[in-house]
Design a protein that fits this description.
The protein is an alpha/beta fold and 361 residues long. 42% of the residues lie in helices and 14% in strands. It has a domain at 3-195 and 227-255 and 296-317: Rossmann fold, CATH 3.40.50. It has helices at 12-24, 64-73, 88-93, 96-119, 160-179, 201-210, 230-243, 260-274, 305-311, 319-332, 334-341, 346-354, and strands spanning 3-7, 29-34, 54-58, 78-81, 129-135, 183-188, 190-192, 215-218, 227-229, 248-252, 287-290. Strands 3-2-1-4-5-6-10 form a seven-stranded parallel sheet, sandwiched between helices. Strands 7-9 form a two-stranded parallel sheet. Helix 1 (12-24) crosses helix 7. The longest helix is centred in the N-terminal third of the chain and has 24 residues, at 96-119. The N and C termini lie far apart (52 Å). The mean pLDDT is 93.
């Protein structure tokens, strides 16, 4: 990587990747293209390690002229594509935006890369890479005794979000096989860590607990997910781009699959430890079981054998360490939480999504 376009770099994983890449490869020039939706914020990119090697462009990945100009003017040789609508609950309430961004936006990026790298010969084709970040949700749901997801698991998405990501995966792969566009794909599990928008499970539980607000747990809380600390994910992406084979897909996971209720109770225990004088101790008393969301996948699990064997990557952060580090970060960055909470329709969306869900236990 020399000149890198990061899409969605003001979001949770994208901003962490920019910080990580600037630390790991100080000579890389980064252009961050982000439209700054509710989940993206320049607050996530303050105090970068190497600001002189970073440029922000506010814009939509669906703007073909803008994207092509960025590729040419920045002499871009690597595209790391994070930009996406990612929240399952929002995709149930409004799926059109997910198709527009995740499918059509990816199509525009692929066309721009094909035009510049292949048709115009703007870069040596052997030295470019389109890296696409995807999700484990494209594979659907696992039964208790099913083997974990692997790179050969058939796609079976169960939500509009997952279906839109599956479609974008197929588009990326098709451009590799049809046009010879060098690409790689990572399907990652649930990420957590600093700078995650507080609508997602872990930051929502932390934020609610700190304010004595009920902790809404869907259904019986026994849905199983694989949890991946965001910096481990960033390391994996860099390894895949630098060492992974073009045309390959890699499963990336944290190698841990607790239930959702285990995550929530663990966070409560950490908060009890960190804030023993809080009036909300024990924080576990705030848990409220609410009506499950439609089509909620029961279990995800990840087989990370390929990336371990091919690229010698393994997650460094254990779940207990990662959760403690995450709680500490949110406790130390309440100004960030306050600023993010004022963005867009966040509070209105929380009210719409959770207030209509009746308590079940």
């Amino acid at each position: 990587m020399h000149n890198v376009l990061v899409t969605g770099g003001a979001g949770f994983i994208g901003s962490n990747f920019i910080r990580y890449l600037q630390t790991a490869e100080s000579d890389v020039d980064i252009v961050n293209l982000d439209v700054l939706t509710y989940a993206g914020s320049l607050e996530n990119l303050k105090d970068l390690p190497n600001p002189d090697k970073y440029k922000f462009v506010q814009g939509d990945i669906g703007d073909d002229d803008l994207v092509e100009n960025i590729l040419r003017e920045g002499n871009i040789d690597t595209i790391v594509h994070f930009a996406a609508e990612t929240h399952v609950d929002r995709s149930i309430l409004g799926p059109a935006k997910f198709v527009e961004t995740n499918v059509m936006g990816t199509f525009v990026l692929l066309e721009a890369a094909r035009n510049y790298w292949i048709d115009e010969g703007g870069q040596n084709i052997s030295e470019v890479r389109f890296h696409h970040i995807s999700t484990d949700e494209v594979f659907g749901s696992l039964e208790p005794d099913d083997p974990p997801f692997s790179e050969v698991t058939p796609y079976a998405p169960n939500s509009p979000y997952a279906a839109s990501k599956a479609a974008s995966d197929h588009l990326v792969r098709s451009y590799g096989h049809t046009y010879g566009l060098p690409f790689s794909i990572t399907n990652c599990s649930n990420n957590y860590g600093p700078y995650q928008f507080p609508e997602k499970l872990i930051p929502l539980m932390i934020s609610n607990a700190l304010n004595g607000i009920p902790l809404p747990v869907y259904g019986d809380g026994k849905q199983i997910r694989d949890w991946l600390f965001v910096e481990d994910h960033c390391r994996a992406i860099r390894e895949v781009i630098n060492q992974g084979e073009s045309g390959e897909t890699y499963i990336v996971g944290g190698n841990t699959q607790p239930t959702n209720i285990t995550i929530v109770t663990t966070l409560c225990e950490i908060l009890d430890e960190c804030l023993p004088n809080s009036s909300f101790v024990p924080h576990e008393s705030l848990i409220k079981y609410v009506t499950d969301r439609p089509g909620h996948d029961r279990r995800y699990a990840m087989d990370i054998t390929k990336i371990i064997n091919d690229l010698s990557w393994t997650p460094k952060r254990s779940l207990s360490e990662g959760l403690m580090k995450t709680v500490e970060w949110y406790l130390d960055h309440q100004d960030w939480v306050a600023a993010i909470g004022k963005q867009g329709d966040y509070q209105d969306w929380l009210d719409k999504n959770y207030e209509a869900r009746g308590e079940t236990q």
